[in-house]
Structure formats: C-alpha cells, structure tokens
What we know:
Blueprint: H1 3-8, H2 14-31, E1 40-46, H3 54-73, E2 80-86, H4 102-106, H5 127-141, E3 147-150, H6 151-157, H7 161-169, H8 171-178, H9 184-189, E4 193-195, E5 210-212, E6 217-221, E7 227-231, E8 237-239, H10 241-252, E9 254-260, H11 267-276, E10 283-287, E11 290-291, H12 308-312, H13 317-325, E12 332-333, H14 339-352, H15 358-363, H16 365-369, H17 383-393, H18 398-408, H19 418-435, H20 446-460, H21 468-481, H22 487-499, H23 507-514, H24 516-528, H25 530-533
Parallel strand pairs: 1-2, 1-9, 2-3, 9-10, 11-12
Antiparallel strand pairs: 4-8, 5-6, 6-7
Amino acid sequence: MSDIAALAASAKAWPFEQARALLKRLEQMEKAGQPKQGPVVFETGYGPSGLPHIGTFGEVVRTSMVRHAFHVLTDNKTPTRMICVSDDMDGMRKIPGNVPNQEILAAHLGKPLTAVPDPFSNEYESFAHHNNARLRSFLDSFGFEYEFLSATELYKSGVYDAMLLRALEKFDEIMAVMLPSLGAERQATYSPFLPISPKTGRVLYVPMKSVDAKAGTITFDDEDGTEVTIAVTGGQTKLQWKPDFGMRWAALGVDFEMFGKDHQDNAPIYSKICRILGVRAPAQYVYELFLDEKGEKISKSKGNGISVEQWLAYAPQESLSLYQFQKPRVAKKLYFDVIPKAVDEYLQHLAAYPDQDATQQLANPVWHIHNGDVPEHNSPISFALLLNLVSAANVENKEALWGFISRYAPEASSTTHPLLDHLAGYAVRYYEDFVKPTKTYRAPDDKERAALTDLAGQLREHEAETDAKELQNLVFAVGKAHEFENLRLWFQALYEILLGQSQGPRFGSFIAIYGVSETIALIKQALAGDLVKK
Length: 534
C-alpha cells in the first residue's frame, strides 16, 4: 500500500468516508462468494423534465470526488466507470414554466420526454435531447470523465430486457413491496409496469388485467378502452420510478449512488427491488437539497435558484465545486449572494494548501476539487476586495481595475496571475449586476464626521504608505481615539458611508490597493455629501 493510500484509509473528508464504505461493500461481496465482475460502477441520475440546474451538476461533481478518493484508497488498482443516466423515457407530467413555446408542448403531455418536441428550436430531436445536451455541455466544460446513458435507449436497445423479464417473474413480490407505500386509491390501480400506448404514444398509468411471465407480456386497457397485450421488452413499457430505480441498479451493476434527501424515504424500496431482482443494492449516500433564497426547494420546472451557466458568469468553476463539497448533508441556500464568499473561501483553502502536511491536505477541499493535483495559489487579492475596489474606483472593465491592482501587487500581471485576471473580470460583472443596483450611501453623524475628518488628516501624513497592516492599524487607532466602544461599528460606518454597503474587506487592505490619496478624496466626497447625492 502506498503512503497516500495508507493516509486515505483514515482521512476524515467525506469523499474518503464514502470510498471506504464502498470498499467495505466490495469486500463483503467477495466474502459472500459474489465478487465484483468488471469495473466498479458509480452512477448519477438525472431527470430531463426541465433545464438542468446546479443540484444536477452537484451530484456529478460529488460522485466524481468519491470516485477519485476510491482510486487513491485502492492505489488505482481497481478499475471504475462513472455513468450519468437520463430518465428521458419518463412521461411529461406538466409543462415547465421556464421554457418558451409552451403551446407546442401542450399536445404532447403524457408522452416520453424523448417524444416531446424541442420548444427551444428545431436543433434537437426532442425536449429531452435538448436538455440532455445542456447537461452534457456543462459536465464537459468541467472535464468530468463519465458515460452518458439515455433511459430511452436502454429500454429500446434491450439493455434492460433481462431485468424487465425478471421483474415480470417477480411481479407479485414487487407489488408486495410497493403497495404498503401507497394510499388506498392508488393501490387499486397500481402497476410497476407502465405501458406505452400503441395508439397515442403516451405513458399509461393503468392497472394490469393480466401478466404472463412465461410469454413476457402484460395485458391492459388502452386509453380508448381497447384491450391490448404487449411485450414488456424493447421499449414498449417502462417501470414506475421507484421500481425503475432498483431495476436500473440491478441491470447496470451499480455499486455507488448518491441522491437528494427527497429520495431518502424511498431508498429502502429501491434496495428491496434490486435484491428481489437478484442483485446486491449499491452503497448509497444521501445529501441535503439546495434551497433558493426564500428557503424553497430548487426545481427544474420552476427554474428557481441558479444555473451552472449563471454561476460561471460571475465566478470560476472551482468556487462552484467548493460550494458543492462543503457540508453536503446540510441544507444550503443557493442564490447569487453566496458567490463572493465561495470564491474567497476557495482562495483561502488554495493559499493554505502548500504549508499543510499530507493529512491536512487530504482534508483540504482543493485536493478534492483538483483531484490531488492542486495548482499554486495565484491571487494576492481577495474577491471581496476587488468588488469594493470596483465600487470605489467606479471602473467599468478589468483593464482599468488592473491599474489599481498593479499598485498593490506590482509583481502581478494578467500573464503571471491568470486567476487574478479572471477574478478581476468577474468582479466587474458581479458588481454591475448585483452590487451597484443595491448600494445605499448614508451621511455620517457628528461622531463619525469627526472620526472621518481625523482619518483623512492622518492619512495625509502617510501618503506614501502601501503596507496594508500599517494602514489597518492607523484606521483602528482612529476609531479607538474617537471612542467607538465597539470598533465593528466604526468599520461598519466606513463601509456604509464610503462604499454604500454594511460590510466589506479589511479597510487597511482597501486603502493600500485603492491608494491613500484616493481614499482621502473619497472621504472628502462623503463629508461633502456627494456620495449620498450620487
């Protein structure tokens, strides 16, 4: 066993905990005389009933982290495979509110999503094909290694046929698992098999009149009341979503899957059905759901929350991966205000990494974000400080922002510090869209006016000063001298009066990068009431 594998055996980060649970499962299979055949399969599932959102992406990035941890734990001696399955044969139950040309979709309610026209354009074969392409596009942009599988193709190509026939043989056992989980009305008409109507093409939720396991067929009444008998194979039927979950695990040999808390109560059902079909259920990990700023669950059909594309317009990919890594079993709100903090936390973890020992590095999120190949820290300036610099300097592009950055970090350039260059562009864009519209300056009270006048006077004696720590000490001393019992109120006043917001970065760092003379001029504007007028 390599040194890193030995450390992984006790590493506390949650991806390692899940990798060890998976390894234990494989060892139990070996002891039971059922050794794993072929690569270890990691699966993620996706429902293309609406545009993919960050929760969808999160499942892939988190599963990828567990997969990499498993590779390290096993010294890369165990081959793995990661699959992303789109449930695109599900019937369209309702029309999403966040898509165009909704009248096009109305005539296709109930049909499999791969049989519903694309409301966005004629570029894709169906609504599902469009949404699948969107999903694959942003997964590819992150460089994930995965195989994309369409449920429609899995059903129609025969990949699922053997398990569908076995499910038909075990029809009564599956019903015995499912019926207790349903209400009396649903029990009366429930069937784990959903036939696709030969006449309308819709997915039918109808009771079975008879099942013939030997012939591999089911009999039911079609929408017009005609009795129909069809084979359960070849894409003529699909399973209800709970039996489908367990069947998919069995058919694809899934060894690990994580899913949201909304699946937690049903997970035992998925596992029981998988076992009924003769296959050991995979190791499972339940994560909490993301919420929008109102505390409501993010929904593909509602389009609330943030899309991956929206996040990446204002911050680097790594900040989004960090947000997914942090506390996956704690519900977190996901809206635009969380982006700056996520960026700076990523920078902090990145800066700390080189000085950590091997055990600490395996616990550092950046190790998991970068699959163990962590880049050098490349930004001497925080994202929050860049945002405040954009605000105070009123710059409209990153080139103008670099004029201030170069004063603070003369060794930096867009060539030598590409991450900082990207952050400068993100800061300008984020400020224009989210900070500027909400800024509210206030006038100082008498005590604050006296302290600001004093600060401006003392800064004139330090106009050549560029040391952020010294400037912070100066600001601190002025606040103390003017008897701000709680110095937080002094700094809050500086932010509200000079920057139009209630919080900000270390003010000494802000002065160092913005410039002492420029800060004095900013204070003069505030004292004259010009900022409030602006």
